[in-house]
Amino acid sequence: MNAVYAALNLIFIVLFAPLLDGIERKVKARLQSRQGPPLIQTWLDLLKLFRRPNVRPRESVRWLFEPAPAIALVSVLAASLFIPSLLPGSLDTWGDIIAFIYLSTLSAVAIALGAFSTGSPYAQIGSHREVSIIMAEEFSLAFIVAALAASSGGLSFSRLFPLQLKVSTITGALAFAVMAYVAGARIPFDVAEAEPEIVEGPLIEFSGKGLGMLKLSIYVKRLLLTTILLNFFLPQDGTVRVLVYVIGLVIISVVYASIEAHYGRFRTKDAARFLKRFAIVGILSWILGVVGW
Predict the structure, then answer these.
(1) What does the pLDDT look like over 151-186, one tens digit per residue?
(2) Is the C-alpha dihedral spanning 153, 157, 163, 169 positive or negative?
(3) Mean per-residue pLDDT for 77-89?
(4) Alpha carbons 33 and 209: distance in angstroms, whole number
(5) Per residue in 210-237, is it b (16+ CB within 10 Å) or e — as a string?
(6) What region, left, alpha or beta, does residue 30 occupy, with left being phi > 0 and alpha being psi -120 to 50 degrees?
């Protein structure tokens, strides 16, 4: 039954992730006194991309460039199987927290490697920035996960959800909320793409279906991180979970979009410096978890 639930959750995630991005775009537009696109605009953009052919740059390394979008998308979709989302079921295995982190990181690495292979200076600058942010981000995330795992007594999502009310888990959950925002490549941390500066950086040389898969992988990753945050507090069973989960997704997306609408983009070194300093919160949470607080 868990496998069936995981498959249904996967379908929901693929369908709903672009809609959440549409909601965020609408909220940001309203806060900036604009009309904004319709809520389904992100889906319309993706469908348009999936109908167009891929164009490979002449200087690109084919065996790196062509599979990168598929690897990025498949990685986050595989990661989604470990997390209960709409329905309270997932592929429950020991160490699935570590598997999720590796798969979600693999998605970002695939995008960076695909961009490196193009030979485009804009893509390579964006990839360098992406790798810098990943390294700082994963350092902070490692301590946050360690803090939550120490409090729950294991490296499985089934033991982690819902959180036990402790000082370490509360600080860890708040820190994870910040990291979910950062890992979603939202302003001010979207230094890798930076549309006005390096024209979407790592994505600049991708087109058609490849670009569609890359964008969809970003939307899915955002939804998965928000789902983990909600699972910290939601009950794992009950019919009310479905309604509360969907409402929670929308509320958190609106909050994130509101924050994004009021900030300018960080410089790369400033974003990395913030994440390195923020790792102190994760370290403190881990220490509190180890001592049983």
Answers:
(1) 776 777 777 777 777 887 888 888 888 888 888 878
(2) positive
(3) 83
(4) 33
(5) bbbbbbbbbbbbbbbbbbbbbbbebeee
(6) alpha
| Under 8 Å between Cβ of 86 and 20 | no
Q: What is the pTM assigned to this prediction?
A: 0.89
Token pair belonging to 144: 């946050």
DSSP code, position 164: P
Read off the tokens for 282. 């994760």
- With residues binned 3-state (H G I as helix, E B as strand, rest as coil), the percentages for the chain, rounded to 5, are 70, 0, 30
Q: What is the mean pLDDT of the chain?
A: 82
Domain positions in the chain: 2-290
pLDDT attached to residue 58:
76
Cα(257)–Cα(250) distance, integer angstroms: 10
Both tokens of residue 99? 């598997």
**Rg of the Cα atoms in the chain:** 19
CA 134 and chain centroid, separation? 12
